[in-house]
């Protein structure tokens, strides 16, 4: 078969060797663990909402009427050999899977790896993150226990808050009045078939684009915007990656064996008129819980329809805005930059202070909402009135991101200033010397070539000024240029000789233009 030449070329693909690039692999291997454990669980789980008395091994619940889904989940935990371990591996794997995707997206964002030619791959990654959240929620709801049922009830209230069509959507999803008898089988089909199929398809496309576009890399001697330096896929990188898979699987197994998660027998079966104390969802949708708790009560009637803004804004509008910003951010930065070349070198976050500050501010918003989702637990543990915590979190939701933005921006500029000082004076030796004037000063030594290279090689676009020439009657692009000045204006110029500047321009040059120049 005509596979030898393409296979040899693919197996010699270079993969940069840096720990930050392993976050995506941790997500991939967590997914593999989820698939293996999920297949095992499907042999014993029954997605049926028919209620019967429980007669299993867990004595405190014997005789309690519960759905077949809940009873089968209890049987997996207490009567199937190794069932509880597999269940907990599956649940911990889901949490690690979503966390690894989130950290991977943050790494790509802070290093600018979403820029041309990877904008589409960034959008695919955001879609994978969204599907991972949906997959986790579907699996979380399947046992039909009191905690997951409370989350399902919350989601139904969010659907109902959508103006005009909310009621119709709720009837369509639940096949009638809540909770009905169809939601668990439907979630089961989505969890084991539809969403995993989309995930695997998009992962295949995502990895294919990574190979086709080549991996980004950190600036080091010998690494430029036109090459990819690293270990070949086979055998070096494959062996290392295989070891990482077993490490991830082993860590998840240890977590499942040592740390209890989702004890559904303590919660009991779901009843629509009961709510668990201290009910909080898994961390990856905890921000929605916090947003719902912090939103003031606000409803209005319009054209015969009741619009519940206190549910619609935090439950529907907030996630839509969040993912809309994530999808559009590469286009926004490209709009501010103007026509730009391909970028294959990672940015150091300190060299893009505005982007880094915006990212930290976004993480701060998420952290505040996540903590607000557990305000009742915090009030109980620290003996603080829940009303005080609500007002404190509302204030922190607006003040915290602003402070985080300002502090991060100043920190990045301070780190750039430290880099400039190190280039000028060299690195510290740890030896203190006395000067002729009687003072003391630390001895300095020139920076190693590798470290100086990493500091000097940076690709920071200049603020745009196109279309604002004095001779124009109407100055075009005025808004974009002002935003570009805000985004790229603050920087610390580094001391570099003319030959060093030429070398940096050569390292960061556009691969297409360089190829055309060589061919010409």
From TrEMBL:
Enzyme class: translocase
Cofactor(s) the record lists: heme
Region (Disordered): 424-443
Documented EC number(s): 7.1.1.8
Domain of life: Bacteria
Name of the protein in question: Cytochrome bc1 complex cytochrome b subunit
Residue spans crossing the bilayer: 21-45, 89-110, 122-142, 154-174, 186-207, 243-261, 358-382, 388-407
Record keywords: Membrane, Transmembrane, Transmembrane helix
Ranges where the Cytochrome b/b6 N-terminal region profile domain occurs: 1-219
Catalytic activity: a quinol + 2 Fe(III)-[cytochrome c](out) = a quinone + 2 Fe(II)-[cytochrome c](out) + 2 H(+)(out)
Organism: Streptomyces cynarae
One Pfam family cited in the UniProt record for this chain: Cytochrom_B_N_2
Listed SUPFAM superfamilies: a domain/subunit of cytochrome bc1 complex (Ubiquinol-cytochrome c reductase), Transmembrane di-heme cytochromes
Keyword Kinase: no
InterPro entries, per database record: Cyt_b/b6_C_sf, Cyt_b/b6_N, Cytb/b6-like_sf, Di-haem_cyt_TM
């Amino acid at each position: 078969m005509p596979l030898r030449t393409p296979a040899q070329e693919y197996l010699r693909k270079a993969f940069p060797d840096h720990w930050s690039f392993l976050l995506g692999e941790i997500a991939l291997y967590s997914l593999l663990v989820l698939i293996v454990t999920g297949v095992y669980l499907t042999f014993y789980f029954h997605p049926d909402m028919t209620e019967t008395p429980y007669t299993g091994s867990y004595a405190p619940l014997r005789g309690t009427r519960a759905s077949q889904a809940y009873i089968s989940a209890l049987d997996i935990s207490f009567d199937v050999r190794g069932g509880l371990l597999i269940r907990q591996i599956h649940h911990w794997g889901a949490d690690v899977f979503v966390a690894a995707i989130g950290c991977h997206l943050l790494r790509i964002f802070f290093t600018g790896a979403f820029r041309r030619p990877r904008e589409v791959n960034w959008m695919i990654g955001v879609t994978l993150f969204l599907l991972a959240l949906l997959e986790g929620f579907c699996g979380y709801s399947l046992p039909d226990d009191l905690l997951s049922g409370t989350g399902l009830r919350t989601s139904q209230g969010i659907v109902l808050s959508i103006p005009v069509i909310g009621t119709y959507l709720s009837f369509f999803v639940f096949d009638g009045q809540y909770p009905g008898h169809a939601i668990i089988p439907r979630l089961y089909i989505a969890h084991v078939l539809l969403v995993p199929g989309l995930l695997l398809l998009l992962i295949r496309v995502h990895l294919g684009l990574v190979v086709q576009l080549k991996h980004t890399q950190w600036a080091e001697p010998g690494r430029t915007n036109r090459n990819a330096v690293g270990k070949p896929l086979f055998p070096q990188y494959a062996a290392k990656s295989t070891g990482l898979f077993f490490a991830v699987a082993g860590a998840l197994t240890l977590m499942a064996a040592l740390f209890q998660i989702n004890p559904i027998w303590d919660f009991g079966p779901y009843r629509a008129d009961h709510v668990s104390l201290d009910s909080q969802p898994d961390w990856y949708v905890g921000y929605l819980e916090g947003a719902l708790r912090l939103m003031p009560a606000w409803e209005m009637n319009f054209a015969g329809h009741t619009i519940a803004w206190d549910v619609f804004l935090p439950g529907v509008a907030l996630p839509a805005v969040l993912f809309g910003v994530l999808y559009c951010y590469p286009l926004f930065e490209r709009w501010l930059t103007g026509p730009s070349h391909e970028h294959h070198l990672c940015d150091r976050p300190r060299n893009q202070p505005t982007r880094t500050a915006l990212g930290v501010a976004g993480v701060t918003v998420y952290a505040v909402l996540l903590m607000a989702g557990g305000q009742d637990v915090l009030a109980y543990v620290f003996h603080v009135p829940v009303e005080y915590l609500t007002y404190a979190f509302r204030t922190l939701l607006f003040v915290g991101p602003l402070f985080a933005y300002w502090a991060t921006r100043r920190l990045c500029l301070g780190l750039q200033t430290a880099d400039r000082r190190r280039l000028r004076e060299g690195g510290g030796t740890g030896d203190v010397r006395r000067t002729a004037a009687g003072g003391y000063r630390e001895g300095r030594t020139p920076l190693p070539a590798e470290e100086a290279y990493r500091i000097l090689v940076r690709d920071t676009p200049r603020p745009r000024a196109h279309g604002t020439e004095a001779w124009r009657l109407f100055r075009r692009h005025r808004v974009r240029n002002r935003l570009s000045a805000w985004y790229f204006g603050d920087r610390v110029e580094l001391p570099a000789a003319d030959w060093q500047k030429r070398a940096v321009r050569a390292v960061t040059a556009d691969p297409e233009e360089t190829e055309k120049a060589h061919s010409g």
